[in-house]
Amino acid sequence: LTFFHDHTMLIVIMITVLVGYMMSSLFFNTYTNRYLLESQGIEVIWTILPAITLIFIALPSLRLLYLLDEVSDPAITLKTIGHQWYWSYEYSDFINLEFDSYMIPLNELETDGFRLLDVDNRAVLPMNTQIRMLVSAADVLHSWTIPALGVKVDATPGRLNQTSFLINRPGLFFGQCSEICGANHSFMPIVIESVKTKTFIKWVSAMSAA
Q: What residues does the Cytochrome oxidase subunit II copper A binding domain cover (predicted)?
């Protein structure tokens, strides 16, 4: 994604500089050509050059699109289901490991909590591990979105959407439903807690025992 961004921005900068130079030269030069009414050669050039430029953008874009859809041997599968207005999580690789995740109300929020973003049950995932995410909904359209991970998956009733990602550092990653899903759409946040593998195994053992 970073490479594609840099690649596209380089092309955009080149186009901007070229067009800016041509416009400024037209403003400030005094040359005229009374006999130039049309030119097939110029029209061919300014039709073909943008087409070639678009190909240079489209090819890496399509490659990246297919790579993002490819799930490469995931170690853990996490299924999330959107409800009005909370998320439920199921760890498919473990027995009886599922829970609901509600936003913490303001009157119950601790002083170091995050207003409108913190939840009572965070989804814990191990870092440096390929994660497969299955997303669906139980009632209306939702969208499971975490900008810091570059993940946005629509949660559609009766449909199971899939994506994959890898978290390369520990920490908390916040997100929200980005599909207008009703009155309390703004109050169904997402929190992913990325931890070391040993810590994740201990958390799974504790949750399964409970």
A: 73-206
